[in-house]
Fold:
Amino acid sequence: MVLLSFDIEEFDMPFEYGKDISFADQIAISRKGTIAILDLLDKHQVKATFFCTATFAENIPDLIKRIIETGHELGSHGYYHSDFKPEHLLQSKLKLEELSGAEITGYRMARMMPVDEKEIEKAGYQYNTSINPTYLPGRYNNFHISRTFYTEENVLQIPASVSPIVRFPLFWLSFHNLPLSLYKKLASWTYKKDKYLNIYFHPWEFTDLDDFERFGFPAYVRKNTGDKMMSRMDEFIKWLKSKDYPLGTFQQFIRNIKK
Structure:
């Protein structure tokens, strides 16, 4: 199964590059991208998982309703995107359940940072997908962690997909910067080995990020965003379907592996 997921959040990334952005603009940009994603998923009639911060969810109640009503899964991405306390694990879960009326069973930590698995279990989550099992300079070195799913502290761990052997990450930056033909080859290699893919993106990638003065993003972040990202994702989903790779939510995947 292919697990497409989207970390929907306050668009605070410009702060990492020394740029200010108002809270209203953070919400508006991520909202625009989320709508674009939902429209594309509707077009292809495929389901995905949205890991949402409680703060963003409070500001997009109509889109939370749409996510649930169209059969997608909602997971927690914390309470805030740029602040974390252990108590936010349960608080965000409860807030998202209140806003959506759905059970929240999965968690993804903002920026794929480490999180205490005991705290994840204590907050009542069934699975955690906060690990990118590769090396990313300035972020993390997770070469020692299993590439594929495993259980820790009674919580199912579902790492983001990386290729066999060299552990090349199949995350959002690779999708933007590699030729799509090469990305497909890496995805196919990984799927054949692991029998699933776990690939994540963000809503702001589906908006125009080319304004360097406003956002301060380097070329490798700006590349293939906005309409180009929509076209690439459209082609990628068509390709996945042509390969007869089923697409689904994390909850569907967990039900399948427990059979």
Remarks:
- The beta strands are 2-8, 49-52, 73-76, 106-107, 127-128, 135-136, 140-141, 150-152, 155-157, 197-201.
- The domain at 2-257 is CATH 3.20.20.370 (TIM Barrel).
- The first strand starts at residue 2 and ends at 8.
